[in-house]
Amino acid sequence: MRPVLRDDVRQLAKRWVDQARTDALRNGEEPPPAFADVPDDQRAPLFHEAHYWHTLASGLFMEQSVPPRPSTANIRAMRSHLAESCALLHSMMDRRGDVLPEGAREQLATLELRVAMALDLVENAGAAWARETDAAWHELMLLARLLTYDPARNSDEWVPEGWNDFAGAYLV
């Protein structure tokens, strides 16, 4: 992805002004002022539009709206993290015996099934990564945080590179 540079924005706005001047002369009309003479109040909208088009062309819109794909290492770390987290929760449950709120064991079992299904989908997606796989990964990211009883054990090795640049990062 190419960054949006101020000079690129300026050059595009200048090309638009030059084109408007050429078109006006071709049509026998009074040409608008040259780029250097365009007043600031007219230049600002040109810069805004040029910046918009460069941002779109650079891929920033896509980067901010589509979450980054996890690497194989991220997926492996996610599996390990969730397995360790669930094992710790089971150990804690066993120590408490029957003195737990009703439904705690069933809820953990349901979450473990969801984790298994989501991991299966993510691990077998390959090149066929799709919206369903994005949703599964989001769910895994959320559950990885929620099922971590001891935050000191949270290494975040499962967080894909670029995740914090993604506008949806508030989900985690």
Describe this structure in words.
With 172 residues, this protein is an all-alpha fold. It is built from 6 helices and no strands. Helix 4 runs antiparallel to helix 5, helix 4 crosses helix 6 and helix 5 packs across helix 6. The longest helix is centred in the middle third of the chain and has 25 residues. The chain is rod-shaped. The two termini are 25 Å apart. The mean pLDDT is 87.
Q: How do the strands and helices of this protein lay out in sequence?
A:
Blueprint: H1 6-26, H2 40-58, H3 60-65, H4 72-96, H5 104-123, H6 131-146
Can you give the mean pLDDT?
87
Question: What helical percentage do the residues reach?
Answer: 55-70%
Largest sheet: none
Radius of gyration: 26 Å
| Uncertain regions spanning at least 5 consecutive residues | none
Cα-to-Cα separation, first versus last residue: 25 Å
Spell the H/E element sequence. Answer: HHHHHH
Shape summary: rod-shaped
Structural class: mainly alpha
Oligomer: single chain
What proportion of the residues form beta strands (DSSP E)? under 5%
Number of helices: 6
- Total number of beta strands: 0
Question: What brief labels describe this structure?
Answer:
62% helix, 172 residues, mainly alpha, 0% strand
